[in-house]
């Protein structure tokens, strides 16, 4: 049966269509659209009508794709922007009416579990693993052993590439001062997870989703780095390069589009803070994320 998973994220909406078999799936199509739902949250955590309409327009674009592939079941998960939004019910009602499918607003810890499942399946490691996912509004962490991950080892912190970009880089300027402020802020968020991941010393450390993947692509373009790895040394070199450039509009990285370039400094600051705080010298870049985790979870049930 052809099924699909929809990740209603704070930065992008991701749709994955696949054929499923027992405990596995084969990708048929993948569509990603930048919506920046999280950018529509005001100071009181209410989504603007413009943000709601951007989200609904994206879902309307997805409908013909779902119909084209004859999708029999759609699994929908919404993340940080809708976790925070006081008027989330307005969006959820409109989206569920359009899609004719239920949408679950998952906790950050549950999101981390799904992502860990996906990345562990991609790399099939049997030893301990730490998976990090930098999203638009939050960053998720999950620690496990092989295919086993427990909710007690999953964390979500309020540090995302869209929210940090709006707060620290709203005018597009990149100074040592606002880069440093973003790193310090993220470090304070990380203190909420304590020392657990520092002492765990995972055999495999992996990062996934758009920010991590974009940073790896830029590092390859600028430094000739291996696109499947990110080292702390290379990341700190990129921080210096960005401050030397001084303005997001002046960045000329050919490998990223304009929308992704706008949130690159924020993503770099968040990942730098994480790697410094958790004493990570190198991480592996994964491709699988929440959509794959949703499909794996439901194919196993």
What does the model show?
The chain is α/β, with parallel strands linked by helices. The protein has two domains: 2-105, ATPase, nucleotide binding domain (Nucleotidyltransferase, domain 5), CATH 3.30.420.40; 109-285, Exopolyphosphatase. Domain 2 (Nucleotidyltransferase, domain 5, 2-Layer Sandwich), CATH 3.30.420.150. Helices cover 46% and strands 24% of the residues. The chain has twelve helices and eleven strands. The protein has helices at residues 49-68, 80-84, 88-99, 108-123, 161-168, 176-190, 196-200, 210-223, 232-245, 258-262, 264-277, 290-299; strands at residues 2-8, 12-21, 24-34, 73-78, 103-105, 128-134, 139-145, 148-157, 204-208, 229-231, 282-285. The strands form two sheets. The protein has a six-stranded mixed sheet, with helices on both faces. A hairpin with a 4-residue loop joins strand 6 (128-134) and strand 7. Helix 4 (108-123) crosses helix 12, helix 5 (161-168) crosses helix 11 (264-277) and helix 8 (210-223) crosses helix 11. The longest helix is centred in the N-terminal third of the chain and has 20 residues, at 49-68. The protein is globular, with a radius of gyration of 18 Å.
